[in-house]
């Protein structure tokens, strides 16, 4: 019997090897174990089609399929962040520390997230992560963690103010990004917003006169991604806390204590000491951890949030809890390292790179890094970059790892502030690969 797929005639399209035969290639069998059969099969089918169209020799189907395999089963690609933006929302905000990565890996399988191994009984979910947060902010009577900052605020509004009023300054009606606006988010919770003051100026009396039997709490939102300058005034938490209703403070970026590097950035401990009843914040901005939403404050309020039905819908994953605890307990995380990187060290790294890129028009230039959408819009951090021809931008971005910089005056600037020094070698290899292409 003749097998139509095995026809050894002269037409190359008829000599394309069968899928099963190609899948038996040891390299593709190994890849099936890590990437899954459907991914590997798709690469084989695509290579067979190319062979049928005469684009590649039939004998090379397995090689072509191997070359086309993705490096990993998920398609999110690692990026070397050479933008100089420390907390870059489009690049996933805070990169995790090695300690956090290790904790995540350990928690991937079955884990004691809700079990006390000593007694064999059910335990409070994420108790150690919560204990680490409580330990980091002694001013908080109680703490809770949800999926992100927006979830923390939604839970507070729903549990404490549904059907009632939240008093908020017109100067703090913030759009977070990507079209999401806090007033809209709060509106979805069933709470009514009672706006007071003006865009540029709000006084204590504005809040005081708005307070009535319907008031659930006063909300203070940190305008974390913009500044208003000129004829402005706003009311500090300490003064708001003299009014007879609870004050909820959305500090945004998640600093737990004052940071001398970012003197204008609010922090949880100071807000609580100033009299806030509840503080909400993000976990993946200046805190440097996984995406999470923090709730810290009065024991009775936090308990009401924790018990609210919505809390279950906003519950954090075990992987988040693992990364979060390790971020709090572990050594300085990458966000902190990037913020505190010494410009002289960045300059010498840039020089060492420039000196080892033969045939590449590379120089070393002074630049400014920024904290990013995650906070401190005013702060500029002096930095150093490798400057390459702008034509390098696209191929570097498309590489694996991808390298993302910024183009300025026809030069691609690769700011080293957010590139861990352990990645200089990968950066060099990526640039040389583009040079050779
Ligand atoms: C970032 C931010 C949020 C939203 O936090 P996510 O973690 O992104 O959900 C809310 N409020 C302020 C002030 C912020 O800066």
Automatic annotation (TrEMBL):
Function of the molecule: Converts seryl-tRNA(Sec) to selenocysteinyl-tRNA(Sec) required for selenoprotein biosynthesis.
Biased composition (Basic and acidic residues): 1-14
UniProt modified residues of type N6-(pyridoxal phosphate)lysine: 285
Chief location: cytoplasm
CC per GO annotation: cytoplasm
The organism of origin for this protein: Virgisporangium ochraceum
Gene designation: selA_1
Protein name: L-seryl-tRNA(Sec) selenium transferase
Compartments (UniProt record): Cytoplasm
């Amino acid at each position: 019997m003749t097998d139509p797929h095995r026809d050894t005639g002269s037409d190359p399209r008829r000599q394309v090897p069968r899928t099963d035969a190609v899948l038996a290639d040891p390299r593709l069998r190994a890849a099936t174990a890590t990437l899954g059969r459907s991914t590997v099969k798709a690469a084989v089918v695509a290579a067979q089609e190319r062979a049928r169209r005469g684009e590649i020799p039939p004998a090379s189907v397995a090689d072509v399929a191997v070359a086309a395999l993705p490096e990993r089963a998920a398609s999110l690609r690692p990026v070397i962040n050479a933008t100089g933006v420390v907390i870059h929302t489009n690049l996933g905000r805070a990169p995790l520390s090695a300690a956090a990565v290790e904790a995540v890996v350990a928690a991937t399988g079955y884990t004691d997230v809700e079990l006390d191994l000593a007694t064999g009984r059910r335990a409070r979910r994420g108790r150690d992560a919560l204990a680490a947060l409580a330990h980091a902010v002694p001013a908080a009577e109680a703490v809770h963690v949800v999926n992100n900052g927006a979830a923390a605020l939604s839970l507070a509004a729903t549990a404490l103010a549904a059907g009632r009023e939240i008093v908020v300054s017109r100067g703090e009606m913030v759009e977070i990004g990507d079209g999401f606006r806090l007033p809209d988010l709060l509106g979805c919770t069933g709470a009514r917003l009672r706006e007071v003051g003006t865009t540029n100026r709000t006084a204590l009396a504005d809040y005081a006169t708005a307070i009535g039997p319907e008031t659930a709490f006063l909300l203070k939102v940190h305008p974390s991604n913009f500044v208003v300058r000129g004829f402005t005034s706003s009311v500090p938490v300490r003064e708001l806390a003299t009014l007879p209703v609870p004050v909820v403070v959305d500090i945004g970026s998640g600093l737990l204590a004052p940071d001398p590097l970012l003197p204008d950035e609010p922090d949880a401990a100071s807000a609580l000491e100033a009299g806030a009843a509840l503080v909400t914040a993000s976990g993946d901005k200046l805190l440097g951890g996984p995406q999470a939403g923090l709730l810290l404050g009065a024991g009775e309020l936090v308990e009401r949030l924790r018990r609210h039905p919505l809390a279950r819908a906003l519950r954090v994953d075990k992987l988040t809890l693992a990364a979060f605890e390790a971020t709090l307990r572990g050594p300085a995380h990458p966000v902190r390292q990037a913020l505190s990187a010494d410009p002289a060290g960045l300059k010498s790294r840039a020089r060492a790179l420039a000196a080892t890129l033969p045939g590449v028009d590379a120089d070393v230039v002074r630049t400014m890094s920024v904290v990013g959408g995650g906070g401190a819009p005013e702060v500029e951090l002096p930095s150093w970059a490798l400057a390459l021809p702008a034509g390098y931008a696209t191929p570097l971005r498309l590489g694996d790892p991808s390298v993302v910089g910024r183009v300025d005056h026809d030069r691609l600037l690769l700011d080293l502030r957010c590139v861990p020094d352990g990645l200089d070698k990968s950066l060099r290899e990526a640039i040389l690969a583009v040079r050779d292409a």
